[in-house]
Every structure is written in C-alpha cells, then in structure tokens.
Amino acid sequence: MAMRSFDILGSVAIVKFPRGSSASLKKKRAEKIMKENNGIKAVLEKSGKFKGRLRKMETKFVAGEKTKEVLYKENGCVFRFNIDDAYFSPRLSNERKEIADAVGKNDKVLVMFAGVAPYSIVIAKKSRAMVWSNEINKRANKYARLNAELNGLKSRIVFLDGDIKKIAKKIMRYSHGVNLKKFAKLGKNYSLKFSSSNYVDLNFRTTSERGNLNIPRYFDVIVMPRPQLKDSFLKEAFSLSKRGARIFYYDFCKADEIDEIKEKVKLEAKKARKKIKITKVKKAGEVAPYRFRIRIDFKVL
C-alpha cells in the first residue's frame, strides 16, 4: 500500500495515510520516515481537513516524540506554532517570497488571514516595509506575536486581531469623522483613538505591548491568503485600497473555473466602484485532485 506525500514542519512530519491503513502499518511507515529523515523526531497523521475560518487541523500522534509544537524555518525566518492551533502550509514558502520581493520599503502592507504571520514576517523581513497583520484566531495571534519577536520585527509589524469585516468598517467610519466614544472595542486588549485625518491610533492595553501604533486609512499592498470560504472578503480589501494599490488575492477552483474567479473579482470591483487591472493569474498548488489554489494579482486604477 503506497503512502501519500507528507509535509515537514521543523522536526515533525505530517502524513496523510491511505484510507483503511491499520495502526500497525501507520506506525511502521512513520518509523521508516524518521529513519530516512534524521531531522524528523515525530510523525503525526492528518486526520481531517482544515476546519472553518480559524483553519484548525486535526492530527493524531503516530510515532516519535509526543509534541505538536514546532520550530520551522523558511526564507531566512523562523516560526514557532502548534500544528493543531493554526493553519500553516510549508508549500506556500515560494508564494511568500514572491510577494515579499514585489513589496517596496515604503509600501504600507495589510495581510489578511495572517495566521501565525508567515506572510507578514517574510514580507517585513525581506522588504523592510511596515506590515499590518490581521487574524481572527486568538491562539494563532499569540504565536504571531512570538514569531515577530523571534525574527526581530516587533517594530515593523502591527497586529490587528479580530474580524477584518469589523476592523475595516471601523477604519472607514473613522475617516468620516464618527464620534470615537461610540466605537466598540476591537478586542479586550485594544481600542481605536484619533490620530490624524489619514491614520487611526491603535493603543494596546497590555503591559507588554503599550505604545501608540498607526493604522493607515488606505494600504499600498493587500495580501489575501484566504481560506476556502464562501465570502471573498474583496469588499473589505477594496474599502481599504487606494488608487495604485496592489492586491494579491487567493481563491480555489478547478482548472476550467479560473475565468469564473476572474469575473468574480471584476464584479466585486464594480460593486465597490473600483477599476482594476488583473496583472497575473497563477496556480499556487493543488489542494485536492483537479482542484487548485490560485492567486490573482491585480492593481486598483
């Protein structure tokens, strides 16, 4: 019985075994993986798909050390996280580098669905740009902050924890002079306050993260490594983009459905009263038989 491919995250291998594999066979194959790969100390079985907007994955211990926390390195950066707490794909390493290479030092960058911050950190590290990193998963946000510290990037990454829909609305409403006393908190640790006509101040209320950090009204680059959800979140991206902004949008489809995704992007732009130019469409990996993750790059005109 052939074993399917596996991913390596630090010293942990995540394996998708063929359906019907016995426990003894799984352990035998796991031990073989560890024997043939000296750096692998534990083997976990991927027992389900990534679930919901939080993109949590279920894994089961098979062999080796009983740990699910990993230290993973890519693109000159290091990441620590628990495999079951947050989504992370090592297969997107080249994607992260490609986008980082397209970002300039003076760009204001927003990363949605940031997870433990791989896109945010690689972009900030390689481009030296300021990055605003958004994620709704609380456990992922804790690791994201740790990863920013591990990579010496605490001064160049601002974390916007919570629902991007709510955050985008607050930034938009602020720009129109809404009374800030009526603003609901973004989360228990922070709230929005006036700064200037173009910025919003994010005041952290935790002891370790005090200080004022600005949120731009508009961003130069928006990265959207979104999960497989019905909502495209393009409405929020367009609301936070200005003329000349570049958006990197991810979606999922079969090869013969790519044109439909392009039309969806154009329709959302029309709804937002934005003109765009699609500059690139590429397959960014197969996520299931005949189903691909695609990336559509476009510019707001």
Notes on the structure:
The protein is of the alpha/beta class. It has helices spanning 23-36, 93-101, 118-127, 138-150, 164-175, 234-239, 258-271; strands at residues 6-9, 12-15, 42-46, 59-64, 69-74, 77-82, 108-111, 130-135, 157-161, 190-194, 199-204, 212-216, 219-224, 241-254, 276-288, 291-300. The N and C termini lie far apart (54 Å). It has two domains: 1-27 and 40-67, 2-Layer Sandwich (GMP Synthetase, Chain A, domain 3), CATH 3.30.300; 85-300, Vaccinia Virus protein VP39 (Rossmann fold, 3-Layer(aba) Sandwich), CATH 3.40.50. It is 26% helix and 35% strand. It is globular, with a radius of gyration of 20 Å. The chain has seven helices and 16 strands. The protein has a seven-stranded mixed β-sheet, sandwiched between helices. It has a four-stranded mixed β-sheet with strand order 1-2-3-4.
Overall mean pLDDT: 85
CATH-assigned fold name of the largest domain: Rossmann fold
Strand order of the largest sheet: 9-8-7-13-14-16-15
**CATH fourth-tier homologous superfamily of the largest domain:** Vaccinia Virus protein VP39
**The CATH top-level class label of the largest domain:** Alpha Beta
CATH architecture of the largest domain: 3-Layer(aba) Sandwich
Number of structural units classed as domains: 2
Taking pLDDT < 50 over at least 5 consecutive residues as the criterion, the unreliable ranges are 176-213
End-to-end CA span: 54 Å
The counted number of beta strands is 16
Query: Radius of gyration from the CA trace?
Result: 20 Å
Q: How many strands, which pairing sense, and closed or not: the largest β-sheet?
A: 7 strands, mixed
Listing every helix as H and every strand as E from the N terminus to the C terminus, the arrangement reads EEHEEEEHEHEHEHEEEEHEHEE
The helix/strand class is: alpha/beta
Helical content (DSSP H or I, runs of 4+)? 25-40%
Number of H/I helices: 7
Approximately how much beta-strand content do the residues carry?
A: 25-35%
How does the overall form come out from the CA principal axes? globular
